[in-house]
Model the fold of this input.
Amino acid sequence: MTDASNNSQTNTPQPNGAKADNTPPDYKPPAQPPKENMWVNVIVNVLIPTLILMKLSGEDKLGPTVALVVALAFPIGYGVLDYLKTRKLNFFSALGVVSVMLTGGMTLLKLPPQYIAIKEAAIPALFGLAVLGSLKTRYPLVKTFMLNPKMMRVDKIQHALEQRQSKARFERTLTNASLMLASSFFLSSFLNYFLAKYLLVSEPGSEAFNAELGKMTAMSFPVITVPTLIVFFIAMFYLFSQIKKHTGLGLDDILINPDDPKT
Done:
């Protein structure tokens, strides 16, 4: 009688369609790739190139051309090493490498600073236009940037939306979030352009121009990244609040815990 009772409890369907946990006791989750260190990123991509461009561009040191090449080698090398380490192409890292190479190429070719300013503005502007254009497709980019299955339990959100018949209202939420996300890219484009126009005034290939380029690299974080991130986090806060409103799910219900092997 006891065995039958135990069997019936074992075979009882789990709530919410969950399956019984049959994980072996000696199971070890697969090793996760090492997380990127934010400080190493900032030091290699911002601090070191800035110091080289501003302090080592003199003719009595590396010289403008060699200093530029050495400074740009750090972010390019970092992006390549990141790919070799993870064996995954990080789109933003790849874009950063391309952007750095374009800046270096324009400088070595001694193109007018105006071209660098246009390049600095064009990349985030294209992102903003892509976000807006994707609203007309089946795969809006807001789902890649903000409603990402690697960060959220998207299937759980969709199930709750269907139960509450809130899918149409949530689609309007995604449209609003897309507009906010696009605005963060356009803000970055605007700030990039005017920062480059304001700082890059010397002859390309000169020590003074390298110093200006280094200063622009150093100022890009507080002047561009911080305001853009503020707008992005406002958009994320809006999205989370609307998810809770339309599904009744809290952050603990929808966010994936990377340390949990069952997620």
The CA atoms of residues 48 and 71 lie 7 Å apart.
